[in-house]
Amino acid sequence: MDKSFAVQVIEFNRTLHYTGKLPDDFQVLNPYLDNPETLEVMQQFYHKYYNDSNRRKFLLGINPSRHGAGVTGVPFTDTKRLQSICGIKMHSACTHEVSSVFVYDMIAEYGGPEEFYREVYINSPFPLAIVRKSKRNWINANYYDDKALFNDVKDFIIDSLKKHLSLNLDASEVFIMGKKNADFLAKINQEANLFGKMTVLEHPRYIQQYKSKEKQLYIDKYILALKK
What we know:
Layout: H1 5-14, E1 26-29, H2 31-34, H3 36-49, E2 56-60, H4 69-72, H5 79-84, H6 98-110, H7 113-119, E3 120-123, E4 129-133, E5 138-141, H8 147-165, E6 169-177, H9 179-192, E7 197-201, H10 204-210, H11 215-227
Helix pairs in contact: 1-3, 6-10, 6-11
């Protein structure tokens, strides 16, 4: 019997390990190694929403933040929405992530998490959190923030995306959060030939921070793109 979508994603996450080079000021955080409860709640989530073999659309973020998937192991899902909307409580952490607010408001209008996750799979080109050393502490970083960083992680990104596509994702059109993210994924796609059409959507963090008054327009844009 073929493995369900959930089992395949869980296996992917459980074996995630970045061993490549990184520039001196960067680190990769692996929530599945850092917190045993992350593994537990991640598995609960995928068994709840992905326990099937459906073909799904692929929605791509950038890389997990420390307060979203960097804690819960579930893309664009902080502990607040993991509990209040998905019904999965995390005891070892309590996080609020700006992007998660937009994503779950959009999911609510899409039809709710059951309908959305039945048709859409979210992940990132680089599926682990990246942080950069600042003067006082470590802050979130994007895989494309530094040329040396991008060159170091590019092969890992290509390998990760190929593994995701093998899960029965529709590669004819990929949906990308963030215009700069799309620019770098276009470079990767030119080299690795992974996707067909690339549909670019504004990143949830950008919408929440700078376009909150027009939020409904962006929710509508996401739903129109994903439901067509």
